[in-house]
Automatic annotation (TrEMBL):
Residues 68-164 form the BD-FAE-like domain. It holds the Pfam family BD-FAE. One of its GO terms (molecular function) is arylformamidase activity. Keywords: Hydrolase. This is Kynurenine formamidase. It comes from Drosophila kikkawai (Fruit fly). InterPro entries: AB_hydrolase_fold, BD-FAE-like_dom, GDXG_lipolytic_enzyme. Gene3D superfamilies: alpha/beta hydrolase (3.40.50.1820).
Length: 300
């Protein structure tokens, strides 16, 4: 139990119930998600309508497996690359909700990749994770071909869960490749699926296709991390929002402890004032707390 005081796991695992915004709306939880979708899609439109922005539309596999890479004419050839993995409980959202983070970073000379992935139930969560490993192989190859010298990965919510696979994929992430990783940023993620997999709210009709055994094997909190050596120079940031549920905050805290105990250079931070959604929305604003934090990661 991540929140022993809670009687209502569905609530603990539904981030929208924990916002403190939209309290005048009849259903603040619906309003916050609706707002998130609207704002993030507007960020995508702002970006694609901006004539200074250059977009490469790339494909790493069949179906929804596409990547957009953003830069502008001032982006240095050997610029760092930041890769963003969106959330949505592995069953919703796409790259059109993933562009908030792009503008401020491109203005800093960073190339930014936002990726789509096949969603459940078109694929099982197990298959989705396997496809994510193929994506990692693809993006490292892209970096090698384009002579990117360093990569930072950022995952939000279910995207942070997917991203954790990078720490446990020696078949594609060689020590050389892990040394290219400047930082890994895990935002508001879930790392232990044992409580959520049989919640109808999170996993309706078992669209994730998981049972108890898979819930364990797909939980990064429970993995043993043996190939830590190549990650010595990578900084790992586990972030969560103040207005996430106690369960989400505790999952992040405990995941950061698991990683630190395994030998990774890990820090943990609860971002004050933010909820699960505006922590992403505000990545679009150059001088927001979250944008400044992400910028500092680069400059440290
Ligand atoms: N239906 C969920 C939505 C949700 O979980 C979510 C929405 C946007 C981005 C991330 C999310 N959660 C985890 O991946 C909720 O109302 O909290």
């Amino acid at each position: 139990m991540y929140n022993p005081k809670s009687q209502d796991l569905d609530r603990e695992y539904f981030p929208s119930y924990h916002t403190t915004r939209f309290q005048n709306e009849p259903e603040p939880n619906l309003a916050v998600v609706e707002h998130f979708i609207k704002v993030t899609q507007q960020h995508e439109r702002d970006l694609t309508e901006n004539r200074n922005i250059i977009v490469e539309n790339l494909r790493y596999g069949e179906g929804r497996r596409v990547v957009d890479v953003f830069s502008d004419k001032n982006t240095p050839v050997h610029s760092p690359l930041l890769v963003f993995v969106h959330g949505g409980y592995w069953q919703m959202l796409d790259k059109s909700h993933s562009c908030s983070i792009v503008g401020p970073l491109v203005r800093q000379g960073i190339r930014v990749a936002v990726m789509d992935y096949n969603l459940c139930p078109a694929v099982s969560l197990e298959k989705l994770m396997a496809e994510f490993v193929r994506f990692l192989d693809w993006i490292f190859r892209y970096a090698e071909l384009t002579q990117v010298m360093e990569i930072t990965f950022v995952g939000h919510s279910a995207g942070a869960h997917l991203l954790s696979r990078i720490l446990n994929s020696p078949e594609v992430v060689s020590p050389q490749r892990s040394q290219m990783c400047w930082a890994l940023v895990f935002m508001c993620g879930v790392y232990d699926l044992r409580e959520l997999y049989n919640l109808e709210s999170v996993n309706p009709k078992n669209i994730l296709d998981i049972d108890e055994r898979k819930a364990e094997s797909l939980s990064p909190m429970l993995w043993s991390y043996t190939d830590v050596g190549g990650w010595r120079s990578t900084r790992i940031y586990v972030l969560v929002a103040e207005h996430d549920s106690v369960t989400f905050i505790e999952q992040s805290r405990r995941f950061s402890e698991v990683l630190r105990n395994a030998g990774f250079q890990t820090s943990f931070k609860v971002f004050q004032k933010y909820d699960h959604f505006d922590i992403i929305e505000e990545t679009a604003i150059d001088d927001s707390d979250i944008s400044r934090y992400l910028r500092n990661i680069r400059n440290e």
